Design the sequence.
């Protein structure tokens, strides 16, 4: 059966500079399951053109980031930004995050997950294409460490409402941090956020945490 995809396009017309970046810069940053993880590890899902991820990488050198994106020109742009800023704490997984989680990423390796301004799929008949739904959340949870966070941001109030409901209904998650919970990272304002603000939307950041490890286990 064909799986419903949360993205509209994975490729697009590329400028010669983008094509060159795909061939020469992107390979340096591509993630492999063998890459050693020696810092708290944050997964950023759907980084777009990579501006917020490059900003976070520069501001949080104590973290290691894995950015996943299906859109090839976006991956090329992020790789170029990383090279320009001489940042080496980000790796890029090119492709669908569902496949990354199912087939490649080790279990319980993530300290945090960020989903910033995912495609809203505004029409009701398209809501089934929204990324963050119960099946996807189950998949994500298997890769989180104790005390890890999931940080979702959107300007679409009905998407935010459904995500809050999803987090509340999930017995593994809490919407209030404990002392040991990892704090979500600051994020810069992106193009998608600006567009939402111009349209008069309210931006919501929703964070949920996994509990700390049960010391009786
Ligand atoms: C609206 S953009 C937001 C970009 C960025 N996070 C920001 O805030 O500027 C959503 C991005 O998610 C990507 N995306 C959607 N579904 C995805 C999936 N299943 N796996 C990887 N990336 C995905 C899209 O290609 C798109 O670039």
Sequence:
């Amino acid at each position: 059966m064909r799986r419903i995809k949360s993205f509209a396009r994975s490729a697009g017309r590329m400028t010669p500079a983008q094509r060159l970046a795909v061939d020469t810069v992107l390979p340096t940053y591509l993630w492999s399951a063998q890459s050693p993880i020696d810092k708290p590890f944050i997964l950023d899902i759907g980084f777009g053109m990579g501006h917020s991820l490059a900003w976070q990488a520069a501001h949080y050198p104590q973290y290691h980031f894995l950015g996943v994106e299906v859109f090839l020109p976006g991956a090329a742009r992020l790789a170029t930004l990383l090279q320009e800023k001489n940042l080496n704490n980000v790796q890029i997984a090119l492709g669908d995050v569902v496949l990354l989680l199912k087939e490649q990423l080790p279990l319980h390796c993530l300290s945090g997950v960020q989903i910033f301004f995912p495609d809203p799929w505004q029409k009701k008949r398209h809501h089934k294409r929204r990324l963050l739904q119960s099946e996807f959340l189950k998949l994500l949870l298997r890769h989180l460490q104790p005390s890890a966070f999931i940080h979702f941001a959107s300007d679409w109030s009905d998407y935010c409402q459904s995500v809050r409901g999803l987090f509340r209904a999930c017995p593994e998650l809490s919407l209030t941090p404990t002392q040991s919970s990892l704090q979500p990272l600051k994020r810069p304002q992106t193009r998608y956020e600006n567009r939402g603000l111009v349209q008069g939307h309210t931006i919501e950041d929703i964070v949920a945490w996994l509990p700390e490890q049960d010391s009786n286990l």
Observations:
- Residues 6-7, 46-48, 52, 68-71, 74, 96-98, 116-119, 131, 190-192 surround S-adenosylmethionine (CB under 6 Å).
